Amino acid sequence: MPEVEPRNIVEKFFNSVANVLVTPTVWVREKIVEPNQQSYPWYHQKFRRVPTIDECYTDDVVCYYEADAQYKRDRLVDSNILSILRARFEDCTLYEAPDHLEKCKPLWNQYEEAQTNWFIKYGDLGGYHNVKTAYMKQKHRMIWERRHGPVGSGKKTE
Predict the structure, then answer these.
(1) Count: domains in the chain
(2) Keywords assigned by UniProt (predicted)?
(3) Which of the residues 32, 73, 86, 123 could staple to 119 if both were Cys, CB 3.0 to 4.6 A apart?
(4) Phi and psi (nearest 5°) for 89?
(5) DSSP states of 119-130 as a string?
(6) According to the model, what pLDDT value does residue 41 have?
């Protein structure tokens, strides 16, 4: 786009203000962001996977801390995935109304399955829980299923 000569002093003033705001942004984009995108296409930090709580020794505080930090990151990721699935279903419902019951059924099923899995892993743990309480919940669920069958199917009668 060719440069157009400003017609009056007001236009010159607004062009100079725009240049003051735009020039640093363009410089950062061209000199910092784009060169780094070629070799490193993501900006979020990638954490290495650490041993889970069942692989830690009982007196290894550092291993407990790392496992707890990884658990909290995984919980945040799972919660955000659930939130995205919910938003997709709500958008589909608004867009496809009044036929949304049949057109959005696959999204609803996917959301329900993710919600169930989230609750199995993180539900009923309370506000202040950590990786150890989640591990104990998993252990107790496995013991229950070994004794009584899958949760929700009723107790086995012998």
Answers:
(1) 2
(2) Electron transport, Membrane, Mitochondrion, Mitochondrion inner membrane, Respiratory chain, Transport
(3) 123
(4) -65, -40
(5) HHHHTT--SS--
(6) 58
